[in-house]
Write a structure and sequence with these properties.
Elements (H helix, E strand, L loop, with lengths): L1 H9 L9 H7 L11 H10 L11 H8 L8 H107 L2 E10 L5 E17 L2 E8 L2 E5 L15 E5 L2 E4 L5 H8 L22 H15 L3 E2 L3 H9 L47 E7 L20 E5 L16 E4 L7 E3 L2 E3 L5
Length: 444
């Protein structure tokens, strides 16, 4: 009633429209209303008090204090209202006493419950203690069994490891024996050059070889070439590419190949003659034999096979390129280019040179590029369409036979690993020689 009265008289809410709890918390107080005297504002503020004990008891009392000259309620009615309020207070006191009694009863029951819980907890703790002791005994037994299993497992693993080590050792022994069957070990250094021909890397390598005694102190060294797979031919982007495609995968069995092209001394030891052009002006026994036709080279293979009991022959074109590349894919086995310090080509020496004068490739083969052309067993084919994929000789009817490797009087582009040339099988020239292969099982 006081709030409504204040708002009607002032046009404003006494507590700025705040909830009573917020107004009470912030201790807000209304402003006096103009038009009311001091007593009237005090009567209005008493009626607006936050606490009941500070507030006007009845509406009639409030109106009487606000407008003392006007009679609002009969006195008897105010008395009855006050009596009812007092009665309500008494009821509340009784209810509070009952609540306190109920609370005391609940607290007593709670104490009893807590005592019972404590007793139950003690009982449970005793049970838990017993279970823990039993669990500990069980865990100790399990741990003992586990340790026994671990020891057993370790013993089994140690036995398996020892057996595996022994097996590996035996395999290593067998591998070593197999390697030793391939021949003696020799070590060498290969070089890698950049596009300008500068050596940028030197790598130590090793390979195995067998020695064939040709008599009179002349020997033939055959290097073991591992089995493998390579991409034969040159990519379309390779400079000077000519009839060297399409590129195709070839898989080869292991074989042996001459460490060097056949020398004049080796040829003379088998054939009894030396047809070479350069024998007259130079001490050429260690130079590659030249001026031999394809038929001369095949005859040399046949005679050598009769002498040794092993089947010597000219390499297939695939065997030659696989051996020349020795795992590389660049135009030359030493890199993107070649220099006169790495091979004999382009008339820079105007003659053949002793075999082994230049760094070998990664298989340990010398003079695969330059010095002399090398006959292959295959007849000429214009491209690789239909070429075998197993490294075997690609038979055909063409009278021309394959030449590989370039020579002392040809340009470096002819010395590329993929370069192909040919000549009639009966023709010879002072830049044409050959190199031998023999099957990988020849010495096993």
């Amino acid at each position: 009633l006081a709030c409504v009265t204040y708002q009607l008289l002032s046009g404003k809410h006494p507590f700025q429209r705040k909830k009573a709890t917020i107004a009470k918390y912030k201790n807000l107080s209304p402003n006096p209303i103009n038009g009311l005297n001091k007593k009237q504002n005090q009567a209005l503020f008493r009626a607006l008090a936050f606490y009941r004990d500070d507030r006007t008891l009845t509406a009639s009392q409030f109106l009487a204090e606000l407008f003392p000259k006007k009679k609002w309620w009969p006195e008897s009615r105010a008395t009855k209202i006050e009596q009812r309020r007092q009665l309500e207070i008494e009821k509340q006191k009784v209810a509070e006493e009952r609540r306190q009694a109920e609370l005391a009863r609940q607290q007593a029951e709670e104490k009893i419950r807590l005592l019972e819980q404590a007793e139950e907890k003690i009982r449970l703790l005793e049970m838990a203690k017993q279970k823990a002791a039993e669990e500990l005994a069980r865990q100790q037994a399990d741990e003992k069994r586990r340790q026994l299993e671990i020891e057993k497992q370790k013993a089994a693993e140690e036995l398996a490891r020892q057996q595996a080590d022994e097996k590996r050792r035996q395999l290593e022994i067998e591998k070593q024996k197999a390697q030793e069957k391939k021949g003696k070990l020799f070590k060498f250094e290969i070089v890698t050059v950049n596009a300008r021909g500068k050596i940028i890397k030197r790598t130590r390598k090793q390979a195995r070889y067998q020695t064939e005694d040709l008599g009179k102190g002349v020997t033939l060294e055959m290097v073991s070439i591992p089995e493998g797979r390579f991409l034969m031919g040159s990519p379309e982007t390779e400079k000077y590419r000519n009839r060297e495609g399409p590129q195709h995968q070839v898989t080869l069995e292991p074989f042996y190949m001459g460490k060097d092209p056949v020398t004049q001394a080796q040829y003379e030891a088998v054939m009894g003659k030396n047809p070479s052009w350069f024998k007259s002006w130079f001490k050429g026994k260690n130079r590659p034999v030249e001026k031999v036709s394809w038929h001369d080279a095949v005859e040399f293979c046949e005679r050598l096979s009769e002498m040794t009991g092993r089947t010597y022959r000219l390499p297939s074109e695939a065997q030659w390129e696989y051996a020349a590349r020795a795992g590389t894919t660049t135009p030359f086995y030493c890199g993107e280019t070649i220099t006169s310090k790495l091979a004999n080509y382009g008339l820079n020496r105007k003659k053949t040179t002793d075999v082994g004068s230049f760094p070998p490739n990664a298989f340990g083969l010398y003079d695969m590029l330059g010095n002399v052309w090398e006959w292959c067993a295959d007849p000429w084919h214009n491209n690789y369409e239909g070429a075998p994929s197993d490294g075997s000789v690609w038979e055909g009817e063409d009278p021309y036979r394959l030449l590989r490797g370039g020579s002392w009087n040809h340009s470096p582009s002819n010395c590329r690993c993929a370069y192909r040339d040919s000549n009639t099988s009966g023709n010879w020239y002072y830049s044409i020689g050959f190199r031998l292969v023999v099957f990988g099982a020849a010495w096993t």
